[in-house]
Structure of Betaine aldehyde dehydrogenase, chloroplastic:
Amino acid sequence: MTTPHYIDGRWVEGQGHDCISVHEPALGLPFAELMSASSAQVDQAVAAARRALPAWKQTSAAERAALLRGFAEQLGARREDLIALQMRNNGKPRHEAEIDLDDAVATFAYYADLAEQLPAKNRDVPLAVPGFTARTRLEPVGVVGLIVPWNFPLVTSAWKLAPALAAGCTVVLKPSEVTPLIEQAYGQIAEQLGLPAGVLNIVNGKAETGAALSGHNGLDKLSFTGSNGVGSQVMRASAVQCRPVTLELGGKSAIVVFDDCDVDQAVEWIVAGITWNAGQMCSATSRLLVQDGIADALLARLQDALETIQVGNPLTEDVQMGPLTSQAQWLKVAGYFATAREEGLKCLAGGKALDRDGWFVSPTLYVDVPQSSRLWVEEIFGPVLCARRFSSEQQAIAQANDSRFGLVATVCSADLERAERVADALEVGHVWINSVQAVFVETSWGGTKGSGIGRELGPWGLSAYQSVKHVTRCLE
Ligand code: NAD
């Protein structure tokens, strides 16, 4: 049993109702257990964050920047342990776990730089009317609750923690019950760096703990990353308090391939967009739109590529795709395979759970999927790609935009003018042109429509934790 909760600068045992088993998905076996935090412990964490706020928001931007750099360095110092834990608990292949770690390090380093630039943002505002002066102050929003999922545990929490601390907020973080050990590193680093007690609190638990935090009347803001179902409950709880939320939700993103593309190159981008993290990505490009002229050649090549992917335990050599991270996710994806059979979809690759220990499924391709199919419309969160054909640019744009989600999209074309035009027409938060899904801390993350509210990363990620104040003085 581990001691998982970091409240007011101390590690404490959980007093909640839920016993959480932490699993190794490649084996389907548990390797750790912990008790969830109780509602009373969530209260203690929020109260500690409230007590810590006045002093923390008075720290200089330079002091906060130095601490954020400390987080980046200490993540680096724990590199091997954190990579190993992600491989074991998430089932990520090594190179993916390494990229997640690098992303978290880059995020803390980036917000350290932005924190240092903060004083220059508090500036005089030129007024057209004489007799007055005005100045802007960017103040921290206050005490923020941060709730995150399991698919990129180090990363989704870094995208919230680093800008919140940079802005001068104090936080209560609730990691996912599927991956509750990885983010303990943030508490250990806070302790090691001497972050004042209460500035960063971590409470672990399932829905009950999450609901205790998201409905807490001591928060000034809630930032949530997760499913649309839970996101809507979190938004409702915040509506009761009339308090701001950031929501990073699901997706059903399109990859649009025009017939002037190199087939092999396009297949590489398509495969990466649906098999990275075994397809458990909010940004998975799970709807392939391929132009008529290239469709037959591309789908045949894609079938080959998906069938030859090495699926297995990430702790063994040469594995390209690991298992699904939880049994619940494995059952959910298997349910979509059953739906595909009921709907009579044409399967070119995969379409089944693997008959072995652990929560493995095969990379899957369905073709000529009707727009009414549940597999075309719903977020599956697994390595399941659905394909349709198109003839014209307008048709591609219309089909890509025909979704209740709007997170990301990819456009592949040798005609760069066309690619840019299509990118501009897509109703999403981020578009890649002729690229894998490279995410840079300087650019924003977040979606339109049902994919969420607000943006993370870049200066927008910092603004999410800032409140704008103006001070106007009459000179007469
Ligand atoms: P989830 O919604 O089930 O859980 C997310 C978090 O909410 C977990 O910490 C969970 O314990 C907590 N929670 C559960 N019930 C709650 C409640 N009633 N009140 C408050 N908190 C509660 O999502 P998941 O299965 O962990 O993650 C997968 C989802 O996350 C997918 O839909 C995916 O698209 C989305 N996601 C989005 C982004 C993005 O940036 N847009 C990034 C990663 C994942």
Remarks:
- The first helix runs from residue 39 to 58.
- The pocket of nicotinamide-adenine-dinucleotide is lined by residues 147-151, 156, 174, 176-177, 206-207, 210-211, 214, 225-227, 230, 233-234, 248-251, 282, 379, 381, 407, 445, 452 (CB under 6 Å).
